[in-house]
Amino acid sequence: MNRIRPVLAGAAALAAVASLSACSDIASEAAAGPEHGQPGHVMLSAATAAGLGAVVTDVDGKTLYRFDKDLSQPPTSNCDGECAAAWPPVLAGTGSPMLKGIQDTQVTTLTRKDGSKQLALNGWPLYEFAGDKQAGQANGQGVNGTWFAVAPDGSKITAGGQAQPAAGGSGY
User: Fold this and answer.
1) What is the distance between the alpha carbons of residues 74 and 67, in angstroms, rounded to a whole number?
2) Collapsing DSSP states into helix, strand and coil, what is residue 43?
3) Do the beta carbons of residue 92 and residue 34 sit within 8 Å?
4) What letters, b where the CB count within 10 A reaches 16 and e where it falls short, cover 161-171?
5) Pairing outcome for strands 117-121 and 124-125
6) What confidence score (pLDDT) does residue 172 get?
């Protein structure tokens, strides 16, 4: 009888520690933000675009761009107002971005003038182009000689540059 009591006490202590450990894991997961694949995460992927090669795309497969008038050191966006309507910034979600074919050490955020957080790749702020309506399009490539698809390492892709004015002749 005396041997059973220490075994039962040990088992109860082990169960208590296990349940506290599980609660601790749940609390740390909640503090870290949403799980990958859930709302709140932005997806960046390396994909291939015709005539451009490897480009970075969003979760919908749309090509992402960088702007030559931005700064990479420190990461600074110079596209606001009408510019941001034509070239929507890729905003950071509430969790860390999901990456496919992109090094996590190259992805950072910057604070825009409006206070929102924008994703940057190798220091360059990332944007979509309103003229790209579906996956695989790169209609923003070379627009005004300042907008270029971004490669998975953050460099600009100059191949296939259109060097054309943006719709409406705006000078972004």
Assistant:
1) 14
2) strand
3) no
4) beeeebeeeee
5) antiparallel
6) 72
Burial class (CB in 10 A: 0-12, 13-18, 19+), 106: middle
Task: Quickly tell me which residue has 């050191």 as its tokens.
Answer: 73
Distances (CA, A) of 72 to 44, 79, 126: 18, 14, 11
* Residue 164 pLDDT: 42
CB burial of 16-51 (b: ≥16 within 10 Å; e: otherwise) equals eeeeeeeeeeeeeeeeeeeeeeeeebbbbbebebee
What type of residue is 146?
T
Structure tokens at 93: 């979600």
Q: Where are the domains of the chain?
A: 1-32, 43-164
pLDDT(31) > 90: no
Query: What pLDDT digit, counting tens, does each position of 102-121 carry?
Result: 999 999 999 999 999 999 99
Q: Which residues contact 71 (CB under 8 A, 6 or more apart)?
A: 78, 123
Among the residues of the chain, which ranges form H helices? 4-32, 82-86
